[in-house]
Amino acid sequence: MNATVDTLDTLPEPVSWSEGMLLSPHHFQQNDIYWNNLLHRRMVMLQPHAWGVLDMALDPTELSKGRVVFQRLRCVMTDGLVIDYPGHFAPAALSLDLSGTDWNQQKQVRVHLRVPVRGKGAASDIGDMQRYTIERGNLEADENTGKDEIVVDRMRPKLSLAAGDNVAKSYCSVPLLELYGDSRGVHLAPFHPPMLNVGASAFQGETGLQRSLAALSELLWKKYRELLGVRLDDRGQPRLDSESSAQVQAARHLVMAMPTFDVMLQSPNTHPADLYLGLSQLVGFVAATPGAPPPPVLGAYDHDDCMPGFTRAIAYVRDQLNRLNANFRVLEFQRVGASGFRIQLPRGIDTGKLLIELSPRAGQNAATMSQWLGSARIANEELIYLLVRRRYPGATIKEATPPQVAAINLRPGAFVYEVANATIEGEDGAARPLISEGHTFTILGEPDEHVPAAITLYLPREGAPARP
């Protein structure tokens, strides 16, 4: 139901007041109807989704037995009528007995709050569509004098609950919840009603919208810290001043939309439509992380049933966070001379196979990268000149596989190579490893136009899964 289309009838014309006119209750009633309609119309112009649930709470014990019993319900109907239960409705119960429902035949049942539409004789008890009951009021004094108390009767909306997919058009209604049953009893389905604030989702507990988004925010910040915190320089110290690392770039993209998203999320009064926009912005930044697939096409915010849109966006973000791993430490080689690169390897690492990434200069491609690296000398720094004298390249290289590239959060086509360690006979005749832990790992290539802009080393973190 769209409040801007389905519930906005033609605005009544204002009452004509004139001196000496014979006043009757009709004039005041029509004046009240006019101003209520005008206020509702203006509210809808400012916020098309100006109706829905503000807060509600159910009796969980009764619910498990198949009885919907509201302990609290605050909402705005599609025609602008404000409901605050129990309030003046107490001690009248707002409940619906579904204990006789055959849950094998009906997989889910939707429960609506309904109030008869306001028509002629809305407070008359003649007929079935009485919108208001007349309740005897309290003694009210004249505010000018504080005296002359009289009884002022009140009109109270006739609330009722209805089960089914739809409600007759003679009622103004708001869907509240969906139920399903099994051998353990009756339970809430994931459905969220139209909500005026995200705090209204609290009745769903841990699966509510606000808590789901809060869990997503926590996961994003955790991933941000993981990705940013594993980047080390060649001395093993954290360095955050460069953006060359794919992991750092991914972390930067993740955090861009987070402050705005968190500010909206921390307030239970934020409208879900605003949160949906914040989440869609977050989806865009996540899609900009290296290797991310295109984001889903998110539809317009659906006030009647907002969760499918939120769920689609949340699932995409979670999938990308699971793909973005921080299982590798990222170390940058130090530039040496015209065509050399070196890095101090930490102790205790496996040097059997190492992954390196070459960052190209303008105009360089895979062929030039492979050509330069293939002719380079690759070994511990103290062995480089031995390799030069023997005209031996040192450690062997080959292009990394797509799974290896994806594992370090790089896009397909990145210039990533696997360096395979080997041994060389030293001057003393003993076999020595070309690359050793705790030594300076050096790559010395030809000083030509194919020298890359930078080289990055990716080392598996302790306890990380085995590499692809």
From TrEMBL:
<dbReference type="InterPro" id="IPR010263">
    <property type="entry name" value="T6SS_TssK"/>
</dbReference>
<dbReference type="Pfam" id="PF05936">
    <property type="entry name" value="T6SS_VasE"/>
</dbReference>
<protein>
    <submittedName>
        <fullName>Type VI secretion system protein ImpJ</fullName>
    </submittedName>
</protein>
